[in-house]
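Q: ATP synthase epsilon chain, please. Structure only.
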Amino acid sequence: MAQLNVDLVAADRKIWSGDARAVSAPAADGEIGILVNHSPLLSVLGEGTVRITGSNGEKVAVKVTGGFLSVDSNQVMLVVDDAEVLDGAGVSGH
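A: Structure for ATP synthase epsilon chain:
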């Protein structure tokens, strides 16, 4: 089964990296949801919460203050200005 390969990084550290089923993020023009085989995308992120559902069902929630999101060939990269882990502290995907 295909999965998303997700990297969520801030300027000073890696927040989360691993395989996921879904990602939800606060795009500048509204909430965006990413599932497997999403079309290529580049978007500016606003302030809000990034939510990741890991491949094993784990839930990760990270409050962000902005940044950008890129999606291509099931590779999701989120580069954020500042991040505060709300759920899934000390997380690192598989």
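A: Brief note, in case it's useful. The two ends are 15 Å apart (CA to CA).
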